[in-house]
Fold these 3 entries.
Entry 1:
Amino acid sequence: QVQLAQSGAEVRRPGASVKVSCKASQYTFTGYDIHWVRQATGQGLEWMGWMNPKSRNTGYAQKFQGRIFMTADTSINTAYLELSGLTSDDTAVYYCARGGLVVRENLDFWGQGTLVTVSS
Amino acid sequence: EVVLTQSPATLSLSPGERATLSCRASQSVGNYLAWYQQKPGQAPRLLIYDASNRATDIPARFSGSGSGTDFTLTINNLEPEDFAVYYCQQRSDWPRTFGQGTKVEVK
């Protein structure tokens, strides 16, 4: 069964950076895009961006441009989301999700989520 | 960016009833619309893609319709496990955007 295992909860001060990992298993990691979606407590879903682990191509939502960075280490089947310049508005659960094989934006498998708390 | 507006915000129904959820786009998204289900404390699950195609292992009581700017998710014969929040998402334009969600709750 496809699995995406994310790193544990993080607490950061305003202005700091955070790096969340997403380890894939039971499928060919380089064959599928990884998307990142976040959700503030009690709020809706917000798409942040995507990357292809093989080509390293990325696409980011404009609102995060300049402070978001998605990478992957194909030797350990792990994708990373790094977000800098954190504010309290970045407090949320961050999900990684696999894009589909045919329809690449079909988010067919999801990680369990990583809570990032930004607080002074 | 494409704004997706879902209605109603909350739908109160009983098991066995039919749920009809709406998603309206601020501009045409063709048929590039998906629906996701999310239960408390869980990650979302893909239900419907490209407006009307059920994802793998999704029961036939879930169906999607629509194109352009108006879309509908229908859940026939609500099962207890169907009470959740439902989101639409478009993949027609960047950034990919989600609606604000419709909560289907037990009446």
Note: The radius of gyration of chain A is 14 Å.
Entry 2:
Amino acid sequence: QSALTQPPSASGSPGQSVTISCTGTSSDVGGSDYVSWYQHRPGKAPKLMIYEVTKRPSGVPQRFSGSRSGNTAFLTVSGLQADDEADYYCSSYAGNNIHVTFGGGTKLTV
Amino acid sequence: EVQLVESGGGLVQPGRSLRLSCAASGFTFDDHVMHWVRQAPGKGLEWVSGIGWNSGSIDYADSVKGRFTISRDNAKNSLYLQMNSLRPEDTALYYCVKDMGLAISTSPDVWGQGTTVTVSS
């Protein structure tokens, strides 16, 4: 039950794009349609930003997009805004019907 | 509006027990997998346990297996986490999380505000 691997930090200037990676294995990220991304601001509940690798929940700006290549998933934030500054976590279904694995989190600085 | 409200956290001595509760509203509770996820101070999110809609599927993180028990009461729209033999490393903010899935976990989507558990002598 190893955590997914994310870079500890990422940064970009307002208006730029940044991509955060999430590396797992063929048993989770690479073999599952259920990869999600969350935005977590201090003192707030985590917010779902991307689900099923590429889908955006209602209300999430189109600036947020998800993709995957092999065992690595990616979250891209385009047109960075100051409000995007937060911790971002990926998660993946990891088998046994119920098991979920999270990444270690990436602190995004704008 | 979907709401998840956790309760039951507090300060407890190592080796003692605590029971967390989560009251759900705004959605059909027994149509969804539910989870407990925690965040220790200064650390990332850690999945703790999950339970299917009819309690037929249950799983735990290795770090809590044998000590924690997840359960649900669909008649009361409530999720529970019985935590026994608590350790200082169990100190964390515990979140109740709704999943999009019914029988298997697909995408945890809605999170409560969390309840704090502190294990210390």
Note: Chain A touches chain B at residues 1, 3, 34, 36, 38, 40, 45-48, 51-52, 57, 87, 89, 91, 93, 96-105 (CB under 8 Å).
Entry 3:
Amino acid sequence: QMTQSPSSLSASVGDRVTITCRASRNIRSHLHWYQHKPGKAPKLLIYETSTLQSGVPSRFSGSGSDIEFSLTISSVQPEDVATYYCQQSFLTPLYAFGQGTTLEI
Amino acid sequence: EVQLLESGGGLIQPGGSLRLSCTASGFSFSDYAMSWVRQAPGKGLEWVATSAVSGTERTFSADSVKARFFVSRDNSNNTLYLQLSSLGAEDTATYFCARNSGPYGGTQGDYFDTWGQGTLVTVSP
């Protein structure tokens, strides 16, 4: 079970925002973050807790360990409007996703 | 450029069957595990099934679709398939094809590094 919070948030351009993902059990560092815009392909942002996927802007960062993880956008931009999902790959059921966090500007 | 293109979605009656396809380009398809992930209307992402590289014959599927959905691949045509059967309203969703980060699937640390835009399956009378 992966629990994200908040389920939605509203921010202004330039704000720093943080999304949290909590696992029901220790998943070590096997936590990944995706961005999904309506009608588009989901996009990998961060893998293994904190490694930025190639091409992803440096305003995105990830941290955490064991059961508590976070995704931070240091300065929100209009193009960051999307739903963000965490996903674990340590426990069964395989590839469990969080319920998503919708970011509005 | 790595690309995944899904096709085969549509309107299907309850109890019916459908086959989805995902055509890959821009990478060595046979070197990667490949997966299907779905999103029901207004809901989040749900992993459906994974096909490991050929030779391992390993496939995995979610309990919610086990024995109804079957994933397969044709490396000669760079195509991933998902055979859906005994469809119900709960299977209505956009189905995304995704490339796994490694060849075997189901491994610790595995994630989806490339996704397609999805194909919509609607199950309705």
Note: The two ends of chain A are 29 Å apart (CA to CA).
